[in-house]
Structures
1.
Amino acid sequence: MTNLDLERMVDTSDEWIVARTGIRERRLATSNDTTVSMAATASRKALAIAGVDPMEIDLLILATDTPDKLMPASSSVLQAELGAMRAGAFDLDAACSGFVYALSVGTQFIRSGVYETVLVVGADSLTRYIDFTDRGTCILFGDGAGAVVLQASDADEGVLSTVLGSDGRGAQHLYVDGIRPTDVPNGNGHGATVPVPTMKMNGTEVFKFAVKVMGEAAVEAIDQAGLSVADIDLFIPHQANMRIIDASARRLELSRDKVFINIERYGNTSAASIPMCIAEAADCGRLQPGMNVVLVAFGAGLSWAANVVRWGSTGTRRRGE
């Protein structure tokens, strides 16, 4: 869906959207797509690149705030879809911060020695909860999925630091009301007897929060990793708004060539945003083994999260092998 498409649906323009968000187009899930189907596609690609068989996965974490059903967890359905029958599986909901939260959780399972191979997925289909007559939200969001494989290694790489935060006092600034069972007979939004709830956002408050917290969380994560901004090779922020990304980069005094941006093509894909950036950065050669990378996100909650990651080699052998 391009900005020109939106011009025919709501009082907006391509120029207005680009100037305020940096977004030119976004992808929408079709009636044949689900959060799980998108997550499965991304997961298969990540497993193939890593050279990992699904039966090697010890744990599967799906970061999403748009599960296909209230229960079971979409991660369980994804586990079966992938054939990862040895893996434990659970969903994690921290909204747009979810992937960074899930990456941090997966890392701790490996560091503790409990597991050696963890699949971390971010997938969301938020456009199903968007009111396309509300120009404050309908211009921002798209659907998508991304995935990474974590493996135990003795190499000096992986997640170097983690910053997680939440301020529930701002929860009313970005939310989707719950869906009652009587509203949605089959639990997935189709055939609802009343309209499916849509996203509500106080854009001004969310913007102010994001500009402040993104830079602060990134700086804290860099300090925790024992690095300086000069040591950072690539900055991968949550793709919510170009003005927020620019403000965060200025806070770190990073040049544009060290900031990865794909918001113009996808919009805000929530928990999928950062892993989609990681995949594209790796594909185009901007993400190389040994690079120090900052991942930072904010989301509903209001939540925030940041990691410093030293990007590893594809197919790094695990401990004991």
Note: Residues 7 and 13 are 5 Å apart (CA to CA).
2.
Amino acid sequence: MGIVLGIDVGGSTTKIVGFSGGELLGTLQVRAADQITSLFGAIGNFLRERGAALGGVERIVLTGVGASYIDEPIYGIETRKVDEFLAIGHGALYLTGLREALVLSLGTGTAVVRAGAEGITHIGGSGVGGGTILGLASRMLNKSDIDAVIDLAESGRLENVDLSVSDILGGNIPSLPPDLTAANFGKIKSAASEADLALGILNMVLQTAGTLAVFAARNDTIRDIVMIGMLSIFPQAHKMQETFRSLYGLNFIIPPHSVFATAIGAGHFSFEEEK
């Protein structure tokens, strides 16, 4: 049985995964100046790292915004496309083993998808996401590398940037954590460092995304929210996960391989199509 490649051709990175007999072989992420270059680079690098030949690839399954640039078989191999929201939902359920979930996809922007027995539906989303972090960091910090922003934020202090609940009310409220953000960037101090600003940017984007998921859950019976995408592995995402779980009573889950969930969903869904 040949290898099935699932590839998520995103706006800034390409994620590729491989399956053999329905079992996940591995994952790889590639960044490049353009989506076509990253797509073909991802295929070559993935196969080389695993000592596999191009002739051993049974099919290629594409998803993501960059999939629209491909209109013919890649290297003469059967090439399929899967709707991105379908791949997001299917990948999240595959990685968690859940039967239904709300999926918070944290990429260049943010999408919320409902996945379950009734099907997979795109509920909505926001333009606030990883692209927002890079844009603001470039302007405010003169940094264009996301890893540099994350490292910088590790030593940041939100109290130098964000207005908290306790700042407004002058004390504690039993139902709300005193350090809960009341206004992002609502209290920037003149002494705020670049680390403080970096943390403020990350906090604003992740809290906005998490709030979208909370609003979606308010209109649903599902309590499990699966976080996937590049931002899901940030240390700050884990803090948001715990804060929102405690505050709203929802089960925020970051599964293994969360960065590759959409590529995994595309590749594995093709096995479902074969049944």
Note: The two ends are 15 Å apart (CA to CA).
3.
Amino acid sequence: MSRKLRFIWIDDDPERESTATTLQERLGVKVAFKNANGQDLLSLLSEIRGEAEPNLILMDHRFTETENQFVGSTAAEYLREKWPDCPIVCVTAAVLEEVDSHKSALYEQVIEIDKISNYYPILLSIAQSFKKLRRRHPKNTEQLTDYLKAPKDDRERLGAVITDEIKMSYEDKGSLLLISKWVRNTLLKRPGFLYDKLWAATLLGIKEESFHKAGQLFDKAKYSGIFAHKGEDIWWQTELRSILSSRVESDKVLLPWEMGRLLPDITPKDYSKCYKSSEDFPETVAYIDESATDRAPMRLRDTDPHPRFDSALCLEENRMMKGRE
């Protein structure tokens, strides 16, 4: 077992120690379980603060079986007084809606306990990335884009969209948390610089389920910077376009979704269609309704800006299918 990564799990449910043991075995890290059941939580937290800083802390959100009842976000604030750049993940049996936006902002991630195995790669990625960032704390935007392993053509644009809050706090304690929130929740989640499989397939003019036929051609475009993790491949859009152009020869000027259909092994059965109109060559990906859960390829004219999302510089506009007429 590697001792390079050390986690602390704080919980008032002793039965979760077995879950912590499984996590330890699956990830090959050391997980120290701190049983808070019946304990003075403040004293326990003070003892933990006297230990070496861990690579990751996991904790419950509702400490109801302790002498002095806390919510995890309060405990997180107390621990961050000592370790301002330590990632803290909330693992809870509570309904996620009970963890309001202010409290959830104090955590790196909020996970339902019965779904924690789905998050193993993410937990490992968070711990490994923070370890790298702490070892060589980024002091400016250039160093941050180095950690992102951004293509040369994207570095200047990335520098323009990194938030002023981050740019003004590179040297401050707690700045790594700001960087993590922006990278994980904006750069890696919102299409623009990076595309997930559905966006990448739509760019190529093919169905998401057909992307595997061409996917290996674009391995060099995969994101491999900080907070990348197994099970969620995403690709640099500029690199996708560059590789595509180098793979397809044509006397005509073609759009990406036209070129993608000329790649080897792609047949008409692989071509994507607009979810709403069934027309050919959908140019964008849009949510089906305001719930912002299900997405599909669509013609741009069949969509409107999604009312739940703000537009952002250099990122794709989140759109929603127009109502059926």
Note: Residues 194-321 form one domain.
4.
Amino acid sequence: MPSFKVILTAPKYAGNVGAVARSMMNFGLHDLVVVAPACDLDSDECRKMAVHAQHVIDRAVEVDAFEEAAQQVDLLAGTSAVVSRSDRKHVRRSLAARDFARQVYDLEGTVGLAFGREDYGLLNPEIERCDILVNIPTADAYPSLNLAHAATVVFYELWSQHHIPVSPRRADRLEKEMLYRSFDQLLEDIRYPEHKKEKTRVMFRRIMGRAMPSKWEYHTLMGVLKRARSK
């Protein structure tokens, strides 16, 4: 499984660096490399935006050139709002952030997540140095995201692919059939109008099908139906 380094390229605003550090901590990332920052990483603004992620700022490594950051990783993923959909234009061919997150955990070594300047993003020579380009799909009318927002989306996609919640045990076919029968019996017990019964039965089945109830939810519903029928 890979480890990750976040690379910020010539950030202009200390608040953005602090906000990125906070998002890194939110999603379990700790290694930050800052290339030729045009702001003070030790400023009050940076630390205020980092909130409880001060250690990310304290540990951040500053380098003078993009190539220095690139040499610290085994695979370099650059991010860009400007992409090409043509197979002939390879420089800006990209993967959606979600697709990248699905594939990257098959790799070993260190993966660099490179984000560009607030105004110009990554320059073409920096894009060309990257092994892969990652894009966050957005509305065509305004595709450019704030640096910290873009970083947060990428971090979230990486986190969600690796920390998928354990699904609860679902009610099985026999349990669902028992639930349907109990509901049918309730309709009988309350003398539900005959001409509405079939549509209501189908509606209940469809609702349960979409809900995919867990075993705990199944037992709770069965308890409610049994109590209702006993009145």
Note: The beta strands are 3-9, 32-35, 61-63, 75-79, 95-96, 110-115, 132-135.
